[in-house]
Amino acid sequence: MRKVSAAVLARLPRYYQILADLRERGREFVSSEHLGRLLGVDDSLVRKDLSGVVSGVQRVGYHVPTTVARIEEVLGLANAKEAFLVGAGSLGRALLRYTGFEQYGLKIVAAFDGDPALIGSRIANTPVLCLGEFEDMVRRMKIRMGIITVPAAAAQEVADRMVRSGMMAIWNFAPVALVAPPDVIVRNENLAAGLSLICYELQGKMQSDLSGEGAGPGGGGRL
């Protein structure tokens, strides 16, 4: 397989979801045109995206089981990954209850929090432990991925703990950009930024729709 660009990597999970569903339905082959319709993109983009992952069969399309297996290999989905989550508040609890991570090979084996009322409880069968035990547990269990769901003010301190304990990847849901060594993978999921973007686009669409109301036949925009 050739090196896959970051843009393609961002789209591959969508391909994976659709192709995995087709595989479950017993579909053996799928064309780039059909995949494009399901994804809402041009079929030429489908062929370009998958060219670095798997080879299609001319006039037949892509072998669904093989394509699913190749995407799993590229994304590392076939390898089980264990993670610790820090912050068992509302967002943390939502992530602990989300069963979709299993499809991507991720298992959150424990959560950590500083609230005495939460310590010792279980959320979706995941134990909530004292934050003071975090570093020792990381080293003993050799956990390499951390998930941050604490408030912004505490996020950098938690990230520093993760780095000190030997974690190699941090998935950050706190609305703050983390500082970490260059050899530590950091993925920031800024929910506020995503909301701002969708609100901005929605506002533009609503303004466009309103401006077009008076432009129809006989309208002219005049009263």
Detailed description of the structure:
- The protein has 223 residues and is an alpha/beta fold.
- It folds into 2 domains: 6-73, Winged helix-like DNA-binding domain superfamily/Winged helix DNA-binding domain (Arc Repressor Mutant, subunit A), CATH 1.10.10.10; 81-192, 3-Layer(aba) Sandwich (Rossmann fold), CATH 3.40.50.720.
- The chain has 8 helices and 9 strands.
- A 7-stranded mixed beta sheet has the order 5-6-4-3-7-8-9.
- β5 (122-123) and β6 (126-130) form a beta hairpin.
- The protein starts with 5 loop residues before the first helix and ends in a 10-residue tail after the last helix.
Compile the SSE list and pairings:
Elements: H1 6-24, E1 29-30, H2 32-39, H3 43-50, E2 62-63, H4 64-75, E3 81-86, H5 90-97, E4 106-113, E5 122-123, E6 126-130, H6 134-141, E7 145-148, H7 152-164, E8 169-172, E9 185-188, H8 191-213
Parallel strand pairs: 3-4, 3-7, 4-6, 7-8, 8-9
Antiparallel strand pairs: 1-2, 5-6
Decide which structural class fits the backbone: alpha/beta
What is the CATH class designation of the largest domain? Alpha Beta
Mean pLDDT: 89
The number of distinct helices, counting runs of at least 4 residues, comes to 8
The CATH homologous superfamily of the largest domain is named NAD(P)-binding Rossmann-like Domain
The run of helices and strands is HEHHEHEHEEEHEHEEH
Task: State the major sheet.
Answer: 7 strands, mixed
What radius of gyration results from the CA coordinates? 23 Å
Shape: globular
The strand order across the widest sheet is 5-6-4-3-7-8-9
